[in-house]
Amino acid sequence: MAEPARVRVRSAIERMLRPRSIAIVGASPSPGSLGASLLANLERFAFDGDVHLVSATRSEINGRPCVKSASALPEGVDCAVLAIPRAGILDAVKSCAQRGVGGVVIFAAGFAEAGPEGQALQAEIARIAGDHGMAIAGPNCLGHINYVDGIPLTFSACAPAPLAGRRGIGVVSQSGAMATVFRAALHARDIAISYSISTGNEALNGTEDFLDYLIDDESTHVVLMMVEQFRHPQRFLAAARNAHAAGKSIVLLHPGRSAAARLSAKTHTGAMTGDYDVMRTLVSHAGVAMVDTLEELLDLGELMIRWPSPPCGGAAVISDSGAFKAMVLDFCEGSDLDLPEPLGATKDSLSTLAPDLILPTNPLDVTAQSLIDPDLYRKAMKPFLEDERYGSLMFAVVLSSPTHSERKMGPIIAALEDLGPPKPVVFGMMGEDCEVAPDIIARLRGLGVPFFRSPERALRALARLASLRPRRSAMAPVTAPAGKRLPAGVLPEYASKRLLADAGLAFPRAELARELHEAQAAASRIGYPVALKAQSPALAHKTEVGGVVLGLTNDASLADAWHKLHADVATAKPGLELDGVLVEAMARPGVELIIGARNDPDWGAVLAIGLGGIWAEALRDVRVLPADLDADAIVGELRKLKAAPLLTGFRGAPALDLRAAAEVASRLGRFVVAHPEIAEIDINPLMVYPGQQGAIALDALIAVR
If residue 96 lies in a helix (H) or strand (E), which one and from where to where? Predict the structure, then answer.
């Protein structure tokens, strides 16, 4: 979006989110009606701006005068909320545009989600608003709540919750119901919300516009988002990078992992990387924390808002259960959460807690001794808090009754108050629904200590936060010198290899032959053994039609293979005319990888790398990566494959030249970025050799839009 347009949109959205004058179109005194609920919210928040009521049937409501239609509103109202049925929306939007309204909030449903007629109506109101510089929230939304200024423009019942100087979380959700859920959950945890925005159908303004606004908002430090459909993926990525640069965190829940992906039938890469995989890869690369559940969204958001600086270093865990200690160790073995063992002065201090009873380990089990010596928690936490190797501390304490709660929590809170604490602390109780006095939870939260009624949720949130630390800084889109545009269609292997060889990829020696004598002459120049491969844009998978013959050792075997190959292809693909047959040197055996690249039309360029050959689709052991990763980063990703032991030396086998494989992937990434017309590239297999013996691509296919 060009800068002048962005400024105009932001100005219109600001008038809608921070209005000093509001019109309620469809005002009503009837309890439970949209208009009545909205007005009750404004009165509950003591909104002190101008409120204009529009009612076709009443001259006043609750002592406030009404006008008959939106066309009778005064000039320049900041925001009009349309609490009327769909049938009246178009006329109301036209009237608001003519009266210079800054933005409209549309509650009504029955637009784009309801079929062609609704789509046309939604497009028309968007056109009118766009032509007049007016913002739209909705239709089919619950509106929004501005807690910074105390302005609720929603029919959902809500109460004032001023920020009072606290760091605020912004909520942006296409689902109005989910926006309400997030709002209720965050307030229940005593977390400040700056803005809660339901975007609905996003006729004109969508998640990207509201995210841009919240990034610029001084009171918003973390944004929680529920997005079911990205309408402008590149704008979202740009906003995410801006948020990262501004030091603001975005946590995103995006359902759709199991939706049928738009798979390409041309290459293996299409089957390896669905739309969700591409989105998740590039969104994460732009600095967004992706989560899979509502719990993770809220829990990670709480850690981020309570801890302005994320923990650096491992985690220490203090518990009073030996069984839970084992559970923590099991959990962390498969996560990014590091649990450093106590060393030096820390180990010495922990050894004195209760010799022969409390072992100086992490997790630390203080046993039931904590009931005898309540000051044990202070003695246990102090060494961990002073040790720079630990970036955070988690308490996982059994609270099975009010008596236990009072006896244990008093000393813990007193110690935390006395010690600072100088680094992030989180509390995960064991006991779940057991009663805990509200003042205990409030005192913890007052110290910036998140309180979870499940230690597993606390661990998952800590681990998720830890996984974000090693992420590369969010980067601007990759740019590469544009290459000459490639012809549309599927490029057969020989043509694909010529292009990729110019980009620096290594292939076996090969020549294209159209007659048997040409093939035999080529084999003589290349040197036996050789392979024959049928070449045609229509043969993406040559092996399946008998189009590949391997291991030919002399002219006679080549002649037999030549005739058989043509016969088999003709049987499988009657009438197909081949471009020729590729005569290629046989490569020595190695471990097969597959490397693919895609230019997703919405999100951009990605790589996919995994175990190759017949296993590519069978096992789907694949890492989907941004196309701009360098070779060092790609080596790290290769080590995360499930098949990594096969690559790094399994049962005494030599480790493979992963650096060479990564260089191939890096060059492929640069190539696909330079050619946005490329739909997909497939290299399967890439043969990788031990030590520093390199890697060579045996097959290649490029599909161009």
Answer: helix 89-98
